[in-house]
Write a structure and sequence with these properties.
By secondary structure, this protein is mainly alpha-helical. It contains two helices and no strands.
Length: 98
């Protein structure tokens, strides 16, 4: 999802809130409010990025667990084939997918 937010003061349209408090002319309350709003937008962006990163880490952990399950099943299949034992259905599927 992407969005663009254009912040502008009606009295000082060229003021950019990213310039900070020092660039505000004459203590304009609208410009101060724009700085607060810009800071809030940045906080929201950071939280969204943190959640996305956390979700990716959860996905990586899930994929790691799945890979470990497949590896464990593969080892079990190899052992059973060597010993001449009958394979279970999930083991047969794994063997057929290779």
């Amino acid at each position: 999802m992407a969005f663009k937010l254009v912040l502008a003061c009606p009295r000082h349209p060229k003021y950019d809130p990213r310039k900070g408090l020092d660039a505000i002319v004459g203590g304009c309350p609208n410009c101060f409010a724009l700085v607060d709003l810009a800071l809030d937008v940045e906080r929201v962006k950071r939280k969204m990025e943190q959640r996305m990163f956390t979700s990716l880490k959860d996905l990586e952990r899930h994929e790691q667990k799945q890979a470990e399950k497949v590896l464990e099943t593969a080892r079990r299949v190899v052992r059973k084939v060597r010993e001449g034992e009958e394979l279970e259905l999930d083991e047969q599927r794994l063997l057929n997918s290779i």
